[in-house]
Specification:
The complex is a heterodimer of chains A (322) and B (237). With 322 residues, chain A is α/β, with parallel strands linked by helices. Chain A has 2 domains: 220 residues, P-loop containing nucleotide triphosphate hydrolases (Rossmann fold), CATH 3.40.50; 71 residues, Alpha-Beta Plaits (2-Layer Sandwich), CATH 3.30.70. In chain A, strands 6-7-8-3-9-10 form a 6-stranded mixed β-sheet, sandwiched between helices. A 4-stranded antiparallel β-sheet of chain A has the order 2-1-4-5. In chain A, helix 3 crosses helix 4 and helix 4 packs across helix 5. Chain A is elongated, with a radius of gyration of 25 Å. The two termini of chain A are 40 Å apart. The relative contact order of chain A is 0.13. With 237 residues, chain B is mainly α. Chain B is 84% helix and 0% strand. In chain B, helix 7 packs across helix 8. Chain B has one domain. Chain B has 10 helices and no strands. Classes of the chains: A alpha/beta (322), B mainly alpha (237).
């Protein structure tokens, strides 16, 4: 449904995205994850035909986004990051206008308008001036215009940003429901949100894709990247010294334990290594008591930080090189 | 075509629902009316619309950019331009739709000035030919001013900047002939040719000079076209 191949976009000399490729199957919900300024919005603006890529191609429903932009745009429902609303129009008039410019006739508009008002729970506000609505409701109006014309592809840029927690939950549920009937791309910098809603996640950082996977697999594929929790009875200083000498240990943090005669350590481990047996061995060899040895799964937050930091280490800041 | 109609209808509705359009329109009518009264009260006043057209066209220089400043600047500010340009709508449909709506608003305001004309007919006996040709001139001049205004609106997300740019360009076209007399040869002739000034006085005399009509129509076409290009090149910035 969506094919993106090797897209690069420069703003002047600044590369906002470089060499991004991915594809989205029909019916899939794809999450776009990255910190602010990672290139999520830029990629979405390119996909929706708002601006062309500097190089590379992309197609929506088989239509090239530059060559056949008008046809591609017919298949897209888009909610930009700043919800685009005419504040002086009523919800109902706004939706009618949006339907009009997407080539819907009066009958279709009347039908679909009441549908989307129902889907987005806007019944009470259909004749309210948009400027008077709260942010959460404005967001819903934004979503309702995006789905009004029953597009094949929905592109939602940070759909839950800036709305209150209860509405966030409702909005997420709404998006998840929409995913049943649409191919959906969603961007976010909130990890639980993406793992909750999406079938597949693309992690993007400084304009490049650093990981693509299902939310669950992101954890397991990176199982080497993990932390180990260790509880040992023994002299702290010596334990630390020994643990640090174990191959693969990156960092050791000591947790304060109250009321116990043991020490608890959080050990960060190198990528792709399971050193639990090595750790057990050194503890036993030193005749300390091993109370607990547990591998801690990484949360998406940690995976994300890890990935983006790795990325930075691999590609040192280019401006310093110049 | 449907898109064009939808955009024109929405924008026209917005104009007539907008308090600021009425305020600006009322200001224009008051100023035009006051100066019309001064003109008509002088001892040697003629029963004609020349004075009215002179003042109306002068105040149009400020009225038109105030009417058009919102059209594209606001869309940029609200982010709705992104919505329009990612919908299956062409840039020319957006620009032309908005332009036609602003023209409708201007015509509505100019229509009210017919009240002054009515007064002339009540208290005098003007020649109807020049009255009609004057209004043709006034409409053409206003339409050209709106086209210049909408270009200004496409250049900035700030409405004030949009209005100032529009007014500046309009003042340039209005008063460039004062400078052209100082410039010798072909460049001076060119500046004279592109000047708006003096063209309306032919209309007020009852003369419809094709070259003047073509001049105003060209200005409209050029500036609407430039606005469309300005919107298209936004994508490439």
């Amino acid at each position: 449904m969506i094919e993106v191949s090797d897209i690069t976009k420069f703003y002047g000399d600044f590369p906002a995205v470089t060499g991004i490729s991915f594809s989205v199957e029909k019916g899939e919900i794809l999450g776009f994850l990255g910190p602010n300024g990672a290139g999520k919005s830029t990629t979405m603006k390119i996909l929706t035909g708002f601006m062309p890529p500097t190089s590379g191609t992309a197609s929506i429903a088989g239509f090239d986004i530059v060559e056949e932009s008008l046809n591609a745009r017919k298949h897209i429902g888009y909610l930009p990051e700043t919800v685009p609303l005419y504040l002086d129009m009523t919800v109902s008039d706004y939706l009618a206008f949006m339907g009009n410019i997407r080539g819907m006739n009066g009958k279709e508009i009347a039908q679909r308008r009441s549908d989307v008002i129902e889907i987005c729970h806007l019944e009470e506000y259909s004749s309210t001036i948009i400027g008077k609505l709260s942010k959460g409701y404005r967001q819903r109006v934004g979503i309702s215009q995006a789905i009004l014309h029953e597009p094949d592809v929905l592109i939602l840029d940070e759909p839950t940003i800036g709305i209150d927690p209860i509405q966030v939950v409702e909005t997420r549920q709404l998006i998840k429901d929409l995913g049943d009937n649409h191919t959906l791309i969603l961007s976010s910098h909130i990890l639980p949100e993406v793992s909750l809603i999406c079938d597949r996640v693309i992690i993007i950082h400084e304009g490049q894709i650093v990981a693509v996977d299902e939310p669950e697999n992101l954890g397991t594929n990176l199982s080497g990247v993990e932390r180990v929790e260790l509880e040992v009875k023994g002299p702290n200083r010596e334990i630390l010294a020994v643990l640090e000498s174990v191959d693969g240990v990156q960092e050791i943090e000591r947790d304060t334990v109250t009321g116990g005669a043991f020490h608890r350590y959080q050990i960060t481990v190198d990528l792709g290594k399971d050193i639990r047996s090595d750790l057990a061995k050194v503890v036993i060899q030193n005749n300390w008591e091993l109370l607990k040895l547990q591998s801690l799964g990484m949360t998406l937050e940690e995976i994300f930080l890890r990935l983006t930091i790795e990325e930075q280490q691999l590609n040192p800041e280019p401006e310093h090189a110049q | 075509m449907n898109n064009l109609i939808a955009i024109t209808a929405k924008e026209t509705k917005a104009y007539f629902a907008m308090p600021s359009a009425y305020v600006v329109g009322a200001m224009f009518l008051v100023l035009t009316g006051v100066f019309f009264v001064f003109d008509i009260s002088s001892p040697f006043a003629e029963a004609g619309v020349r004075g009215l057209v002179d003042w109306a066209s002068f105040f149009t220089i400020f009225l038109a950019p105030l009417l058009t400043m919102r059209l594209l600047a606001e869309e940029q500010k609200l982010g709705t331009l992104e919505l329009l340009l990612t919908s299956p709508v062409r840039e020319w449909e957006v620009v032309l739709g908005k332009y036609i709506a602003s023209l409708a608003m201007l015509l509505a305001i100019q229509f009210v000035t017919l009240y002054y004309v009515l007064m002339i007919y009540v208290f005098g006996d003007p020649d109807s030919g020049p009255v009609l040709s004057s209004y043709l001139g006034l409409i053409l001049h206003g339409a050209a001013a709106l086209a210049i205004g909408i270009l200004g609106s496409s250049l900035s997300a700030n409405q004030i900047v949009a209005a100032v740019v529009g007014t500046a360009v309009l003042l340039f076209f209005t008063f460039i002939d004062r400078v052209s007399s100082l410039v010798e040869g072909a460049p001076g002739g060119f500046l004279n040719a592109i000047s708006m000034d003096g063209r309306l006085s032919d209309f007020t005399r009852g003369v419809i000079d094709t070259s003047h009509v073509i001049y105003f129509l060209s200005l409209i076409a050029i500036f609407v076209f430039l606005t469309i290009r300005s919107l298209e090149t936004r994508r490439w910035r």
